[in-house]
Design a protein that fits this description.
It contains 6 helices and 5 strands. With 123 residues, it is of the alpha/beta class. The protein has a single domain, classed as Oxidized Rhodanese, domain 1, CATH 3.40.250.10.
Length: 123
């Protein structure tokens, strides 16, 4: 029983660490994210690979692959750092790491989809 409790505690800690809000990053639920991106003209970025993006993505999203570091840096450098950026990946891990990169680049309003694209397409 203690082993099961410890395993669950570790899993919750790891999941929380992957999707953590910071000063400049806000994690949004699917419904919050949907409301935000449908109400106005926003910068919506899918940080998955091109293959993942082609297999399905949120309407209006641009694809900037997290793993293509130079292209990632160059493409995000073209955006206004004071305007909101909405990002997502497959499950929330890469977009969490991407938000850290964006904060380091000086972005001040980053919104990350909790659960990523998998959460978006889930019932």
């Amino acid at each position: 029983m203690k082993s099961l409790f410890f395993t669950c505690l570790v899993a919750i800690t790891v999941i929380t660490a992957c999707a953590q809000e910071t000063k400049n990053t806000t994690i949004l639920s699917k419904s919050e994210f949907q409301t935000e991106i449908s109400d106005k003209d926003v910068t919506l970025i899918d940080v998955r690979t091109a293959e993942e993006f082609e297999a399905g993505h949120i309407d209006g999203a641009q694809n900037i692959d997290f793993f293509q570091e130079q292209a990632f840096q160059k493409k995000f450098s073209a955006f206004d750092k004071d305007q909101p950026i909405y990002i997502y990946c497959r499950s929330g891990n890469r977009s969490g790491q991407a938000s850290e990169r964006l904060e380091a680049m000086g972005f001040t309003k980053i919104y990350d989809l909790k659960g990523g694209y998998l959460g978006w397409v889930a019932n």
